[in-house]
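Sequence in, structure out.
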Amino acid sequence: EMRCDTNISIKKKGESKLGAKVEIKNMNSFNNVRRAAIYELERQLDMVLKGEEIAVETRTFNPDEGKTYGMRFKETMNDYRYFPCPDLPPVQLEESFIDQLRPQAEMQPATFRRSFSEKYQLSDYDIGILTEEKETAKYFDALCEEVNDTKAAANWLNGPIRALLNEGSQSLSQLNLSAASLAELINLVDSGKVVYKTAVQQLLPELLKGDESPAILAERLNLLVVKDAGELQSIIQDVLVSLPNEVAAFKKGKKKLMGLFMGEVMKRSRGKASPKDVQEELNKALSR
C-alpha cells in the first residue's frame, strides 16, 4: 500500500529563498498528493497575502474534506532527525547516461510555460494555471490544435472545465471529454451556432453522458442558435407586450431595463438566441 509525504514551501516571484517548509504526512494515492499540494499551496498563499506567518510544521490531509490539518510543530531542521539510510547506497549518474535519457523525458513545466507563451500569447495567469499539472498542459496543447481561438480554449479549460473537475474531485482523464470533443464545442460557440451560456449549462453536461458529437447533440436537443429573424422578432414582440410599464419606463430614460428585456427574450428562446442579435432587434423594436 502506498504511503507518501510531501513538503510544500512558497516564495515570492524573483526571490531565491523558499519560505517555511510544511510537511504533509501519509497520503495513500497520487491523487491525494495532488489534492493536498493544491490545498496547501492555496492555504499558504492566503496566509502570506494576509501578512500571517507560516509555521514550520507537520500536517495531515483529510481526503473527505480535501483539507490539511496541523499535527505538530518543528522548531529547527534538526527536529526532523535526517540520517542516511544504511540500506540505500548512494547513486551517482554519469552525465553521458543522463544525456541519453533526456530525449525520452517528458516536457517539464518550465518548457510548457515557455512554449505556451511563444505559441499562444497567453497571460502569465492563464499559463500558470494551465501548466500546474502535466495532464492539463498536454490536454490544452492538444486542444489548441483543434480550436480557432486559443484564448477561448484557455478560458474554457480554466473556467467551466476546472469547475467541473473541482466539483467532482476528478482529473481530466476521468471526465469523459476528449480534447477533440471540447474543441468542437468551443468552435460551435465561437462560430455563433450555440450561445456560450447554453453550451456551459445545457450542452456540456449532456456531452459528458455519452459519445455524441457536440454538433449532433446540439441539433438533437434543439439548442442551435435561432437564425430565423421572424421567430426572434415574434419572441421580442411577445416580451415587450407583456411588459408595457417597463417599456414605457425604458423609453423615458431607464436604459438599465434593457437587461430585463434581454433576460426575458433569452429565457423564452431557451438560450437559442444570439445575445448580439437579441440586443440589435430589441433596440429596433424599442425605438419604434
